[in-house]
């Protein structure tokens, strides 16, 4: 039988950088265990933070992702939209580059992430505040 489940979760504020949130996503949807096969879609309701999937083991990867993002879009760029501070417009650009959602397959009640993969919150503001996610599960029930 096909079914879906949707929930919203608020993540606590984090400093600028790339943060593993896989465990928080899973904690928000214990219903995932009911699904035999399907998809988990995670959407962030913000324009200055994003989501991506990358390595979950070595924390140096998260530091290097922040370094690379800042090289792609440095704060010293000549932006016109500056009323919310020097980190705001670069945060919008980075959020568009990384994207506002990720989709992960579900199999036998589990996310089918690779061994070294995790879901990242890409916080592009120096002080981004709480971030709101919409998590949607869809698929065939066990």
What does this structure look like?
The chain is α+β, with helices and mostly antiparallel strands and 142 residues long. It has one domain (2-141): YjbQ-like (Jelly Rolls, Sandwich). Helices cover 23% and strands 45% of the residues. It starts with a strand and ends with a strand.
Short key terms for the protein model shown above:
single chain, 142 residues, alpha+beta, Jelly Rolls, three-stranded antiparallel beta sheet
Q: Topology, please?
A:
Elements: E1 2-11, E2 15-20, H1 22-28, E3 35-44, E4 49-55, H2 59-72, H3 88-98, E5 101-107, E6 110-111, E7 117-127, E8 131-141
Antiparallel strand pairs: 1-8, 2-7, 3-5, 3-8, 4-7, 5-6
Give the CATH level 1 class. Mainly Beta
Mean pLDDT across all residues, rounded?
97
Q: Give the DSSP E fraction (strand runs of 2 or more residues).
A: over 45%
Number of domains: 1
What characterizes the major β-sheet?
5 strands, antiparallel
From the N-terminal CA to the C-terminal CA, the straight-line distance is 8 Å
**Spatial arrangement of strands, main beta sheet:** 1-8-3-5-6
Which ranges are low-confidence, i.e. pLDDT below 50, for 5 or more consecutive residues? none
**Quaternary structure type:** single chain
- Helical/strand content category: alpha+beta
Radius of gyration, taken over Cα atoms and rounded to an integer in Å: 16 Å
Indicate the CATH topology. Jelly Rolls
* Count of runs of 4 or more consecutive helical residues: 3
The coarse overall form would be elongated
Label the CATH architecture: Sandwich
Helical amount:
10-25%
Number of strands: 8
Fourth-level CATH superfamily:
YjbQ-like
Order of helical and strand elements: EEHEEHHEEEE
């Amino acid at each position: 039988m096909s079914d879906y489940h949707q929930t919203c979760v608020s993540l606590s504020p984090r400093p600028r950088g790339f943060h593993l949130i896989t465990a928080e996503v899973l904690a928000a949807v214990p219903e995932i265990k009911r699904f035999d096969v399907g998809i988990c879609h995670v959407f962030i309701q913000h324009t200055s933070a994003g989501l991506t999937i990358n390595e979950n083991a070595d924390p140096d990867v998260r530091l290097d992702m922040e370094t690379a993002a800042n090289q792609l879009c440095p704060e010293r760029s000549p932006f016109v939209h500056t009323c919310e501070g020097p980190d705001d417009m670069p945060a919008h650009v980075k959020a568009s580059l990384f994207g506002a959602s990720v989709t992960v397959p579900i199999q036998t009640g589990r996310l089918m992430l690779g061994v070294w993969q995790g879901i990242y919150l890409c916080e592009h503001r120096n002080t981004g505040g709480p971030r709101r996610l919409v998590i949607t599960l869809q698929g065939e029930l066990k």
